[in-house]
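Attaching the record inline, Q. Sequence:
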Amino acid sequence: MSLLTTKEIMEIIPHRQPFLLIDTVEELEPGVRAVAKKCVSYNEPFFAGHFPGEPVMPGVLIIEALAQAGAVAILCKPENKGKTAYFAAISQAKFKKKVVPGDVLMLRTEIIKCKGPIGVGKAEATVNGELAASAELTFAIGASEG
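Structure, as predicted:
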């Protein structure tokens, strides 16, 4: 059983369909780490153009899904409730395996540094235990617009 449902995730981060890229959160240590799941469906809007006849989840969207997992981890801290985590940098991004319809993407992001509103997460996406993508994600916590 999942720790957080899609509805509960949407209470923490501002992302909505079609840009909410995590379905559930399986493990969570607020401010420390999150493990999320994305069930990749053929109905994803990006598959219509990436690529016709050979659907592949764009690498940038895998990185975004990892960032959303990290955002859940950092925005679960009481002092960050209602705020937004913005990208500040992406480094050491590597793509090792295609992600295709039917795959279950496991997204692990661990906050490895945090100083004031700036932090860094170490992130890995796997499919069936095989590394699909990894990156170091720098974020900035800002006030929510709304």
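The first strand starts at residue 24 and ends at 29. Residues 114 and 120 are 6 Å apart (CA to CA).

More tomorrow.
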